C-alpha cells in the first residue's frame, strides 16, 4: 500500500460475483512518514487507515459489481472495531461482503485479518453516484488492473439503479 | 398503510432516536423530524430490509432536484408509506 497516496488495496485474492464478496491483500509499508509521528519508537498503522482499508476494499467490490459504471464514496462506518495493533510489514487480508445494494447507497460488511487473526471489522455504508469526472473512472479502471481485479465476466446488476441520479444532499 | 406506517415510524424512532410519539403520518421526514440525508440512508436500508423492496431514492431525489416533484410527495410519511405499499404490490404482482 502507498499510504501517502491513499492507495490502500494492493491485490485481489478472490472475487465472487454471485456471493458478492471480495478478498484483498494489503501490505503495510516498512517505512512511511506517518510512522514518524504515529508513534515515535512504536510505529503503528493508524486505526483510521484500517477503516480506510476496509472501506476501499468495500468500494472495489461495489465498483466491480456495478461494472465500474458509478463511483462509491464513504458515508458511514458502524460498529467499527480496532482489535489489535497493526505494525509495519504486516499483511492485512480484508474480506468484504455486500449486505444490501440500495438506490444510491450500499451497505457492506468488512473485516481485516493478519495471519488469520481478526484485527478490525466494521459495517460500511457507501454512497453511490455516477462518476463526477471521467478521469476518475479511468483512474479506478487502472487501479482495478493494478490490483488484479478479475474483469472477465460482467456482474449481473439485477434491479440496479437508473443510470442518471440526483444527489441526496440536495434534498 | 397503517401497518406500513407503524413499521416505518418505529424504524425512524429507532434509527434517529426520535420519540415515537412525535412521528405522525403528517410528519415531513426532513422539515419536521430533521432527518438529514445520511440518516435517511440508514432509514432506507432498514425499510428495504423490512419490506423486501428497494426504495428508488435516486430517481426521487432527481425528480425533486429537477423540480418535477416536491419533497412532500416522497418525504411526508403518509406519502412515503403509500409509495412503499405500491412497491410491495408491484413486487408481488
From TrEMBL, chain B:
Pfam family, one: PP-binding
Record GO biological process: lipid A biosynthetic process
Sorted UniProt keywords: Fatty acid biosynthesis, Fatty acid metabolism, Lipid biosynthesis, Lipid metabolism, Phosphopantetheine, Phosphoprotein
Alphabetized GO MF terms: acyl binding; acyl carrier activity
Lipid biosynthesis in keyword set: yes
Pathway listed: Glycolipid biosynthesis; KDO(2)-lipid A biosynthesis
SUPFAM superfamilies (UniProt xref): ACP-like
Signal sequence extent: none
Recorded GO CC terms: cytosol; membrane
Name of the featured protein: Acyl carrier protein AcpXL
Species per Swiss-Prot/TrEMBL record: Ancylobacter defluvii
The organism's taxonomic lineage, starting at the top: Bacteria, Pseudomonadati, Pseudomonadota, Alphaproteobacteria, Hyphomicrobiales
Amino acid at each position: 500500500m502507498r499510504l501517502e497516496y491513499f492507495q490502500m488495496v494492493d491485490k485481489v485474492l478472490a472475487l465472487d460475483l454471485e456471493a458478492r464478496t471480495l478478498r484483498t491483500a494489503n501490505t503495510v509499508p516498512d517505512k512511511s512518514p506517518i510512522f514518524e509521528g504515529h508513534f515515535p519508537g512504536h510505529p503503528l498503522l493508524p486505526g483510521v487507515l484500517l477503516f480506510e482499508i476496509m472501506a476501499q476494499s468495500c468500494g472495489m467490490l461495489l465498483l466491480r459489481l456495478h461494472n465500474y459504471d458509478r463511483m462509491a464514496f464513504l458515508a458511514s462506518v458502524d460498529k467499527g472495531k480496532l482489535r489489535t495493533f497493526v505494525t509495519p510489514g504486516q499483511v492485512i487480508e480484508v474480506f468484504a461482503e455486500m449486505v444490501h445494494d440500495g438506490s444510491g447507497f450500499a451497505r457492506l460488511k468488512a473485516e481485516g485479518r493478519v495471519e488469520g487473526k481478526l484485527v478490525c471489522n466494521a459495517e460500511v455504508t457507501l454512497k453511490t453516484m455516477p462518476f463526477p469526472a471521467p478521469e476518475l473512472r479511468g483512474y479506478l479502471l487502472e487501479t482495478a488492473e493494478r490490483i488484479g481485479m478479475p474483469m472477465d465476466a460482467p456482474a449481473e446488476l439485477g434491479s440496479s439503479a437508473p443510470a442518471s441520479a440526483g444527489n441526496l444532499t440536495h434534498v | 398503510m397503517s401497518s406500513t406506517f407503524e413499521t416505518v415510524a418505529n424504524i425512524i424512532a429507532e434509527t434517529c432516536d426520535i420519540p415515537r410519539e412525535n412521528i405522525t403520518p403528517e410528519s415531513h421526514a426532513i422539515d419536521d423530524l430533521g432527518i438529514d440525508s445520511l440518516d435517511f440512508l440508514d432509514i432506507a436500508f432498514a425499510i428495504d430490509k423490512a419490506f423486501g423492496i428497494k426504495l428508488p431514492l435516486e430517481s426521487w431525489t432527481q425528480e425533486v432536484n429537477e423540480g418535477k416533484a416536491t419533497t412532500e410527495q416522497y418525504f411526508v410519511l403518509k406519502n412515503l408509506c403509500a409509495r412503499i405499499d405500491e412497491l410491495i404490490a408491484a413486487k408481488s404482482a
